[in-house]
Predict the 3D structure of the following.
Amino acid sequence: MHSNHNHQPNHTNHPNHFDQPHHNGHPFHFNLVAAARTIMIERGFQPDFPAAAAGELAAIQARTDLPSGPDIHDLRALPWSSIDNDTSKDLDQIEWAEPLADGRIRVLVGVADVDFRVHHGSVIDAHAQSETTSVYTGVKVFPMLPVELSEGATSLNENQDRAAVVIEFVVASCGAASDGKVYRALVRNHAQLAYPGVGAWLEGKASAPPKVAASADLAAQLHLQDKAAQWLVCNRFQHGALDLETIETRPVMLEDEAVEITRLEKNRATSLIEEFMVAANGVIARTFQDAGVASIRRIVRTPKRWSRIVELAAGLGATLPADPDSKALNDFLLAQHRKDPDHFPDLSLAVVKLMGPGEYVLVKPNNPSPGHFGLAVQDYTHSTAPNRRFPDVVTQRLLKAWLAHGPQPYSESQLDAIATRCTEMEDAARHVERDMQKRIAAVVLHPHIGQSYPAIVTGVNQYGIFIRTLAPPVEGMVVQGGKGLDVGDKVTVRLVHTDPERGHIDFSV
């Protein structure tokens, strides 16, 4: 799908304004940013910062100090690096690893100390506590914190000295992370890298990205981190972590207009960061447990709709145990992935929906945590993305208070209320992102009405037949033909209509 128009978008104050093209093949003007803003408000978000935040922000930006004292480790000389999306500007964490004499690998994860700049109880903090998360709509990020902080003063940007909380653990071959500890530090990101380049290089599919090619030390460092991550993933899979593959997409923008949709591919670099974050979050959870500190945990409960997952597997010729078993489920998923890779993302999505969404809960000292079914970990908190998630800021404050032997900043009832709000707003954010994906797809596909696409049937119910085109990966409905089709069938569909206003995409078979 190519679109090579070159013109200014037609902006208007009306969020739902669009021009109907006179004939096919012309780009379609629909103000996606205005639509995103409208949906944000409908879902309970406040996209604008309160007026009083401006004064606070100016005061924060005027400060250049860094924390000091005997409990602050100066680790700026370590060759830290970050790996994130190539579009990310809010950098939450950096990594460094070293081999130990006994063959194990020590890993350090440095997390931006957002609390050092954003004080508990400030106007900016209260806004973040209300929003609870940054929302990524594909056409615009609605940040939880002002971008001057999340992409500036509190972001671990390349070649900048920053305050951080460092989470340290040791990884043994195909073993769990152990010997965890946490402390405050000064850090400096020496190389800001991106998933696509690092991942392709680690997998041997491409040459090293320029920064990696220019430094043998950085290349060796990334190989060591990758080795530690592979050991961690091996250990989690042995315990039944689910290897799910849902499709994530992002629009290609040209002068404020979405012209194409690309699929975000997972690779060795995304896996590396995921594994380090799961391990780091486990260290924090166990630290709180051992210290007897109440905290907010991130959990996915044992699936209530397990019987439906069993039914789903039976329909594909596999037998799952009657009681929830993440190891058995993952073995089935791996076998299906090998057997039918095309349809695997849809199976993954069905399993994700049946497992139910994650939620935040208060875990009191000495009370067992419900754990995280999909990650196959018992101890899991959110602590590694404080620029974009409020629970992580709360975790950071609890941790720093404990490290300083001071009083805890939140009562158990406050933590409980924050956990409930975070679950609610994360659910709202998911809806905003899904609504926007549909609208973006409707805009991108509009000039291609009449074209045919290979597709897979993803759902059949009383409302109709639903399909997903393979390239670009877009979901839509069959409005003409298709009698007798069932889930999993491969078909060729013809695009007949799109409606960005409602996010509808219609096909005929």
About this structure: The CA atoms of residues 280 and 417 lie 25 Å apart. The mean pLDDT is 88. Residues 38-300+357-441 form one domain.
